[in-house]
Amino acid sequence: MINLEEPGKEILESTIKENLKKRVWSLFEENSSENSFNRQKFPGSHPVSFAREHLVGNTKYLVCEKSDGVRYLLFIPNIPNSRGVNDVQSFLIDRKYRFWRIYIQVPSLLLKGDSIFDVELVLDHETNKRILIFDTLFSAGICFMRNNYFERLQSAWYSLVYPVREAGKASKVSVEVYLKDFFETTQIDYLWHHIMPKIPHKCDGLIFTAVDAEYILGSNPGILKWKPCELNTLDFHIKVASDNSYELCTLGRNLEKFSSMSNIGCIELNDGDIVECNLVNNKWNVLKKRSDKSTPNSTEVAQNVLKSINDNVSIDEIISVFQVVKRQKIS
C-alpha cells in the first residue's frame, strides 16, 4: 500500500537537514516583516473554516476541489555541486519539518535561485502519486507571497508545470507535477456535480482563495475551507485520563482541554498521539492517527470548525448564493 506520508527518501543526516532548513528559513526571513516568521512552525498558510457569514460580501475568490491528500511544501534549492554545476534536487517538507527527497523534472528557469511551492500529494486511481500545486511562495529566488493569486498561479504554471509538459517525462521522475484546476465561484455547480465526481483522487470539499489576498503564514482569512458538515474534522492531542477516558487537547499558549471522549473502539491511543476526529451525534469519533503532524489544531481553529459544523452551510446554499451573483452580473 502506498503511504503518502512517506513520499520519498527522508533526509536523516543532521548536517544536511539543518542546511536545508537554514535555506528555507533565510527565504522567509528575508521576505517577512520583523519577528513575523517562526522557525519552529510549519511555514505554510492555513485555511479558515467556511461559515455562514462567508455567504455575504464582495470578496472575489477562485475555487478548487479540496483534495483528500497530504499537504507539503515543495522545495527546490539551487545547490551547485563540487564542479559548480547545479545539482538538481527536490524535497517535500511535511508539517513535522521533515525533508523527503523526491525526483521531479526541474526546468532550467528554476535554477537561478531557491523555489518553494504549496502542494498536495494525492493518490490517483489508488496507485499513482501526483503532486498538485496550488500556490507559489518563491520561484527562482523571487518572492511571490505579496503577489495576487492569479500571479502566483501563473508563476507555478510558467516556471514549472508548463516547461515540464513541453519537455516530456524524464526517466528518473518518481512523481509527476500538475497545477490544480481552478474555477470562478459562478461555476461551483458545474465543479461540484460534473467535475469532482470524475476526479481520479479522493476529494472532500471546496477551497476558496481570495484573488487579491497575499500569501499569509499561519491562519489565513483569505482562504476558506468548506466541507459537508459530516466530513468536518479536527486534529487533537491525546491525553490519557483513565483506562477508558481521553482528553482531547488543542493548542493555545499551551495544550488546552477542548473536549473528552471514551469508547474509541479498536484504535490504540497513547499520550501525545495526534488524532483526526469527526463529530457524530455530538460525540467525537477517532478516524485515524496523524503521523504527519506533531501538534494539534489551535484552539481558535477548533472553535471555527465547531462553528462551521453548527452553521451547517450546505452545497445547495453555496451554489444558490453564487448563482444569484452570476445573474446579477449578467443583468
Automatic annotation (TrEMBL):
GO BP term, example:
7-methylguanosine mRNA capping
- Could you tell me which InterPro entries the record lists for this protein? mRNA_cap_enzyme_adenylation, mRNA_cap_enzyme_C, mRNA_Capping_Enz/RNA_Phosphat, NA-bd_OB-fold
Locate the mRNA capping enzyme C-terminal domain: which residues?
256-319
Q: What class of enzyme is it?
A: transferase
The answer to keyword Secreted applying to this record is no
Which PANTHER family does this one have? MRNA-CAPPING ENZYME
Reaction(s) catalysed by this chain's protein: a 5'-end diphospho-ribonucleoside in mRNA + GTP + H(+) = a 5'-end (5'-triphosphoguanosine)-ribonucleoside in mRNA + diphosphate
Tell me which residues make up the mRNA capping enzyme adenylation domain.
46-227
GO terms for molecular function, please? ATP binding; GTP binding; mRNA guanylyltransferase activity
Tell me the organism. Stentor coeruleus
Annotated Pfam families = mRNA_cap_C, mRNA_cap_enzyme
Q: Which SUPFAM superfamilies match?
A: DNA ligase/mRNA capping enzyme, catalytic domain, Nucleic acid-binding proteins
Name of the protein in question: mRNA guanylyltransferase
| Keyword annotations of the record | GTP-binding, mRNA capping, mRNA processing, Nucleotide-binding, Nucleotidyltransferase, Nucleus, Transferase
Q: List localization entries.
A: Nucleus
The protein's Enzyme Commission number: 2.7.7.50
Q: Which domain of life is it from?
A: Eukaryota
Q: Which GO terms describe its cellular component?
A: nucleus
